[in-house]
Design a protein that fits this description.
Mean pLDDT: 82
Order of helices and strands: HHHHH
Strand content: under 5%
Helix content: 55-70%
Distance between the termini: 24 Å
Number of strands: 0
Shape: globular
Structural class: mainly alpha
Number of helices: 5
Oligomer: single chain
């Protein structure tokens, strides 16, 4: 499985840092922020569970713009091969 070479931008890194320090940030926002910060150097990529969480945040209307930005950043660093393989018909065996 290939690794992504994308890194979290400095703007998203600042947002993630602010989110983690804020007492008013939700646990979902904080977990996305932690994931984004862990990918700051590009040697890590988003795991399958975090991909799922980020996708649900983006699909929902109940999250703040900043939380959605973190979710988008996390998803952009996901393993594209895993997503393609998991959505292929051969992967869904009965």
């Amino acid at each position: 499985m290939s690794k992504t070479t994308k890194q979290t931008s400095s703007r998203i890194g600042r947002l993630a840092s602010e989110t983690l320090q804020s007492s008013s940030s939700s646990q979902v926002a904080k977990s996305l922020a932690a994931s984004a910060l862990s990918q700051r150097r590009g040697d890590k990529q988003t795991g399958a569970q975090m991909e799922d969480k980020a996708a649900r945040v983006l699909a929902s209307d109940r999250y703040a713009k900043e939380t959605k930005e973190l979710a988008a950043s996390v998803l952009s660093q996901a393993n594209k091969q895993r997503g393609a393989r998991e959505s292929s018909p051969s992967c869904h065996r009965i």
